[in-house]
Each structure stands twice: as structure tokens, then as C-alpha cells.
Design brief:
The complex is a heterodimer.
Chain A lengths: L6 H4 L5 H18 L7 H18 L7 E3 L4 E3 L1 H27 L6 H17 L4 H19 L6 H32 L4 H9 L12 H18 L9 H7 L2 H26 L10 H4 L5 E5 L3 H20 L4 H23 L1 E8 L2 E5 L3 H29 L15 H4 L1 H15 L5 H15 L3 H27 L13 H19 L2 H7 L2 H9 L1
Antiparallel strand pairs in A: 1-2, 3-4, 4-5
Helix pairs in contact in A: 2-3, 2-5, 3-4, 4-5, 4-11, 4-15, 4-20, 5-6, 5-11, 6-7, 6-11, 7-9, 7-10, 8-11, 9-11, 10-11, 10-14, 11-14, 11-15, 13-14, 13-19, 14-15, 14-18, 14-19, 15-17, 15-18, 15-20, 17-19, 17-20, 18-20
Chain B lengths: L6 H24 L6 H4 L18 H25 L1 H29 L6
The chains are: A mainly alpha, B mainly alpha.
Chain lengths: ~525, ~120
């Protein structure tokens, strides 16, 4: 009859952090109804408490590497790291939101529930081992964000931002489903390791003879489009500036790191575990290889990601130069940062083929581990740095949304020396100056890209980083070398925002000085992924 | 997986697209055309049209609509579950319990927020 799994088979305790957070959020929605309107701070405290518990529950994931729910879910170092990034990001976001929501008159308890739902979506995305889980996680992380973007409902801009994000996001989801369906059609499975085995074949190059190859390539392209939309990669970035500007600032801050971490987690999972060996054009080199010889070939999607990464870095950085509103500038620079991480994803696509014997080849995506480490450490660094930058911008923002122009930073070092110093540090980290976390992330990514032979792309990356220094340093110049025309109070500089800034600053500094902390956590990731596949 | 296995899907796609195109255009090809002002005007139950069809409606109707969809889906999931209830056993009971729990949370939320009060 029906094959009913038992609870023991489902291995649910592996997925405990995500399940805990999702269940807690459902209950929080009800609890919040009974918290009086002037005591919503309680909801915020409960939210932070739940995030801390989830953080602790997540720690065993780093050396588990176990699957759950019939192989659909996996908790490994990758998942643990993504969870760590997003939980930390969410804690900082809650600290940022508490006062901002109150002073702009949009204090709703639902905000925290929506945030937690989105966080659990990102956590499931990091642990997805199946295209269906990737899709559900994609929806779970996006739908709360649509609502959060439109939270300032008396403001037309916020409404526009919500509806724009919703319609385009729904469109991107449709792309993902279509792509997943094509991949399923070509390989007969939605499970990522099995897709890998279907492509790689048992003993080398079987894939070229697969007549359904074209569907795999189109499927991979559609998945890249859908997740490229989520991470705001050029040319799927059109929504970003409008949505980021219209949404309440804490939501923007979370979107720029949380949704990005989720999108990249999904992209890395699909590309590293599912499709790394999707090579269609071997050329003649394979024919003439001697036994024992090794060559490297690009996988079918590497060139596409190469172009997207280059376009994203160039476009994001050059448009950011012309922005005078710091919030908008950070939105464009977040596009640029997606480009750097895409560079790491592109590095995964360099495949090594070795001829073991006559008609017997092995294929390995050799740079997957270094690329993965680079992307994840960059995401961690970016989360701390960008949330810190948003915290400072928010502390200067007036209740009506003004106060975030470049000139408003003039003379900040005299008015609020500590905040100005931290902002300067965040800006340096966004550029990638040594002793900051941003440097470590950029270094690892450039390193992976050079190893993978993507030299021109690395040069574009380095040059655009230099370009980005212009608009980041401009803020430092304004803060330290110019005098303020006005001496207004920074209304947003409340204790909670200060805590958030300090947490972000500490993270940026610690991971900048001791990068081994992050790398040690990831040390087993490559081995865990290898055991998953073979 | 060979490509030929997708042939029925492709044929269905072609057939359905073709059929839709034929149905949409067949009357334009064969039907008599004799337009008058009355005939080309939008049809509004035989009355003269009195305004645009797109009007603002109270949001309450949408709330009822959303509620309806919620419980509609619940029933749709309940039916197959009830059919194979014996086979699913304890596992099915727990999973369905979770599903109903989530829906109930939504209902309590709506109730408390006053979405069920018409005035």
C-alpha cells in the first residue's frame, strides 16, 4: 500500500534549528496578539531570544553532515555556516528595528514574525538537498519580505516597493520551477546528489551522450535567472534600487544581506552539488589525451556566470558613484558585492578531466571547496559590514526619511566621534582593506578565481574594487575633513542602534584579524560535500 | 532519459495551442460581420453601460475570499487524507495535526485582528 515513513527515519533532530524557529514564529504570531500595543518591545526581546536559541541549536551542524527527511535536507558545515550568518544578521536587524519602527509609526508585532519566517526560509535554503526544498525555501524567504517591504503602508513608495518586489519575485519563482522541472525531466530526479550522479555517470564522460543534455543546460540557465534575481545580479537587478529605497530601512538592511545569503546558499547548493560537471563542449582535447593526462574545461554555465559576475561588478560600482543618497548608494553597492560572490560561484565551474584508462575518464570540480569557502566568508563579512553601515545611516535618518544624503555625513566625526570611526571602518571593510573582514572575503574569492583560471574576471574584480574605493572613501572624507553646515541631532542614535553598530563592528574586526575562526568552521565542508556525492 | 519520452507532452502542447488558436479565430473567419454601435458596446445585462467596470470594492470581500481559499484548501487536503487514513496511521495523524495547527493559528490571528467582523 502506501509507504509511510516513521518519525525515526525522518531524522528530524538534524533539522532542529529551522524547525524550532518556524514553530516558535507560528506561536509568536499568536502571543504577539496579546501583547499591548505600547509594549511591542517584548516581542522584539522574544525574537532575539529565539534567534539565540536557534544559534545554539545550530552549532552541532558543523560536524554532523547528516541528511534528514528522506535525503531532502542536509545539515553540514555549509548549512551551519549559512545559518550562523543569517541568525547573526537577523539579531542585528531586530536591534536596528526596535526604535526605527516606533519613531516612524509602523510598529507592528507582525514585523518580527515575518522576519523570523524569512530567516527560517533562508535556513532551509542553506540545508536544501533537493530542488523542491530549494523552491519551498525560496518562497518562505521571499513572501515575508514582500510584506515587510510594504510595511510603511501610508507611504506610496513603500507600497510600490512591495508590489514591485512581489510581482518580479513571483516571476523569478516561476523561472525556478520551470528550470527545476527541466532538470528533473533530463535526469529523472530532483535530489541534488542524484542529479550530480546522473550527469557525471558512474565512470566519467557519459553526459555527452545524454540526449537530454540541452534540457539540463536550459534548466540550469533558468535556475541561474531565478536565483540571480534574488541576489540582485545584473541584468536581473532592476528592482533593487526602487525596492531598497521604498522599504523601511531595517527591512532594506535585512534584504541586502539576508535575501542575498539565501539566494547564494541556493545557487551554491545547486551549482556545487547538483550541476558542477555539466560540461557540454569537451572539444578535441579529450580525444588526443594520453592516459594519466589531465586537462581543465569550463562547465556549461561558467561563461554565463562569468559574464553576469563581470556585468554586476562593473554596473553596481559605476552607478553607485553617481548616488548622493547614502541609502541608494548602499543599494547599488550591494549589487556590486553580489558580483564578487558570483565570481566565486563561477570558479566552481572549472572542471578537471583525467584520463584514467582507455575510454575511462574522471571529472572533478576541483575548485569547489576554495570557491565555497570564499563565498561563505565573504557573505559573513558582508553581513556584518553592511548591517553596520546601515545602522549608522539609520541613526542619522530623520523620521520623515531625510537625513541620509552624503552632505548629512559632514563633520560627523566631531558630533559623534565613535559612530564616525565605526562607519569609517565599515567603509574600509566594504572596499576590502586589510585588517577588516571584507579583505579576508575578497582575498579568498580572488584566490579561488585565480586558481580556477579566471584571470580576466579577477582583474575586473580588482579594478572595480578600486573604483568602489572612490565612493566609500568619499563618506570618510565627508565625516572627517568637512565641517557640518547644520548641527542637528541624530534622532536615530538610540541605545539599540548603538548595540547593533557595536556588534557589527566587533564582527567585522574579529573576522578581519582572526580569519581562521571562520575558516576552521568551514574546514570540513569540502570533505562533507565529497562524501555526499560519492 | 531519452528525449522521445517527452513526445506526448510535446504533442499535447502543440494540440492545445493549435486548438485554442482555431477556436479563437474560427468565428472571425466564417461568421457574418455586421457591426452597429449597439452591437459593439460592452454587454452589461442588456442595460446601457453606465461606467467603467473597474471600481473600488470594500476590502472585506477580499478578506472573505482569502478565508474561503484557506479553508477550501484545507478540505481539499483533508479528503485524500481521510481516504487513506488507515494506511497512514499515527504518522498521518501527526502530520495532519500540524497542518491544522498552522491553519488554526491563522484563524485565531484573523479573529483577534477583527477580520471576521463585518462592521
Amino acid at each position: 500500500m502506501i509507504d509511510v515513513p516513521s518519525f525515526a527515519e525522518l531524522n528530524l533532530e538534524v533539522a532542529l534549528p529551522g524547525i524550532f524557529l518556524a514553530l516558535f514564529t507560528t506561536v509568536l504570531l499568536i502571543v504577539d496578539l496579546f501583547i499591548p500595543k505600547d509594549r511591542k518591545i517584548t516581542t522584539a526581546h522574544l525574537t532575539i531570544g529565539a534567534l539565540v536559541v536557534a544559534f545554539v541549536l545550530n552549532l552541532p551542524a558543523f560536524n554532523a553532515g547528516e541528511t534528514a527527511m528522506n535525503e531532502m535536507f542536509i545539515a553540514d558545515a555549509f548549512a551551519g555556516f549559512v545559518n550562523m550568518i543569517v541568525i547573526t544578521g537577523a539579531i542585528i536587524t531586530v536591534l536596528l528595528s526596535v526604535d526605527y519602527m516606533k519613531r516612524s509609526g509602523i510598529e507592528h508585532g507582525e514585523f518580527y514574525s515575518l522576519l523570523l519566517f524569512s530567516v527560517s526560509g533562508i535556513m532551509f535554503m542553506g540545508s536544501a538537498n533537493d530542488l523542491i526544498v530549494v523552491f519551498i525555501a525560496l518562497e518562505l524567504l521571499s513572501i515575508p519580505l514582500y510584506v515587510m517591504a510594504a510595511l510603511r503602508h501610508d507611504d506610496v513608495k513603500s507600497e510600490e516597493s512591495g508590489i514591485k518586489y512581489f510581482i518580479l519575485g513571483a516571476f523569478a519563482s516561476a523561472f525556478f520551477v520551470y528550470g527545476a522541472a527541466l532538470i528533473y525531466g533530463a535526469t529523472g530526479t530532483t535530489n541534488l546528489p542524484e542529479i550530480f550522479r546522473a550527469i557525471a555517470g558512474a565512470d566519467g564522460i557519459v553526459a555527452t551522450e545524454n540526449s537530454a543534455m540541452i534540457y539540463l543546460v536550459i534548466g540550469a540557465a533558468m535556475v541561474i535567472v531565478a536565483l540571480g534575481f534574488k541576489v540582485a545580479a545584473v541584468p536581473f537587478h532592476m528592482w533593487t534600487p526602487d525596492v531598497y529605497e521604498g522599504a523601511p530601512t531595517p527591512v532594506t538592511a535585512f534584504m541586502s544581506v539576508g535575501a542575498k545569503a539565501g539566494g547564494f546558499a541556493g545557487l551554491l547548493r545547486v551549482m556545487i552539488i547538483g550541476l558542477p560537471l555539466l560540461v557540454v563542449n569537451f572539444g578535441d582535447a579529450v580525444e588526443t589525451m594520453a592516459i594519466g593526462e589531465t586537462i581543465t574545461v569550463p562547465s556549461a554555465w561558467q561563461t554565463a556566470l562569468w559574464l553576469i559576475a563581470a556585468a554586476t561588478m562593473i554596473f553596481g560600482n559605476f552607478i553607485a558613484i553617481s548616488q548622493t543618497n547614502v541609502k541608494r548608494m548602499l543599494a547599488y553597492s550591494s549589487i556590486a558585492h553580489a558580483g564578487y560572490i558570483l565570481m566565486a560561484v563561477a570558479a566552481v565551474g572549472t572542471v578537471q578531466i583525467t584520463k584514467v584508462a582507455e575510454n575511462d575518464y574522471t571529472m572533478v570540480a576541483v575548485y569547489a571547496e576554495s570557491a565555497l569557502n570564499g563565498a561563505l566568508v565573504y557573505l559573513l563579512a558582508y553581513t556584518f559590514t553592511n548591517l553596520g553601515a546601515f545602522a549608522v545611516v539609520m541613526s542619522l535618518e530623520n523620521n520623515d526619511g531625510s537625513g541620509t544624503m552624503l552632505d548629512d555625513f559632514n563633520g560627523l566625526s566631531k558630533r559623534h566621534p565613535l559612530t564616525a570611526a565605526m562607519m569609517a571602518f565599515f567603509m574600509l571593510s566594504l572596499i576590502g582593506v586589510p585588517t577588516t573582514a571584507g579583505f579576508i572575503g575578497k582575498f579568498l574569492i580572488f584566490d579561488a578565481a585565480i586558481q580556477a583560471g579566471l584571470i580576466p574576471l579577477t582583474i575586473i574584480g580588482v579594478l572595480t574594487s578600486a573604483v568602489s574605493a572612490y565612493y566609500y572613501v568619499r563618506i570618510i572624507v565627508n565625516m572627517y575633513l568637512k565641517d557640518a553646515a547644520v548641527t542637528d541631532e541624530a534622532v536615530g542614535l538610540t541605545p539599540y542602534v548603538n548595540y547593533a553598530t557595536i556588534v557589527a563592528f566587533a564582527g567585522t574586526l574579529i573576522f578581519g584579524l582572526f580569519p581562521m575562526l571562520a575558516l576552521d568552521l568551514l574546514a570540513s565542508s569540502g570533505a562533507q560535500i565529497a562524501t555526499l556525492l560519492f | 532519459m531519452a528525449l522521445e519520452q517527452f513526445a506526448p507532452v510535446g504533442m499535447l502542447l502543440l494540440l492545445s495551442t493549435g486548438l485554442v488558436l482555431i477556436i479563437l479565430n474560427i468565428s472571425a473567419v466564417f461568421g457574418p460581420k455586421n457591426p452597429t454601435t449597439r452591437k459593439t458596446a460592452p454587454y452589461e445585462s442588456g442595460m446601457k453601460p453606465i461606467g467603467p467596470a473597474v471600481r473600488r470594492l470594500p476590502v472585506k470581500f477580499y478578506l472573505i475570499g482569502v478565508l474561503f481559499i484557506l479553508f477550501d484548501i484545507e478540505v481539499i487536503f483533508f479528503l485524500p487524507w481521510a481516504v487513506v487514513f488507515r494506511g497512514l496511521g499515527f504518522y498521518g495523524l501527526i502530520v495532519m495535526g500540524l497542518f491544522v495547527f498552522i491553519l488554526t493559528v491563522g484563524l485565531i490571528y484573523e479573529w483577534k485582528k477583527g477580520a471576521l467582523e463585518w462592521e
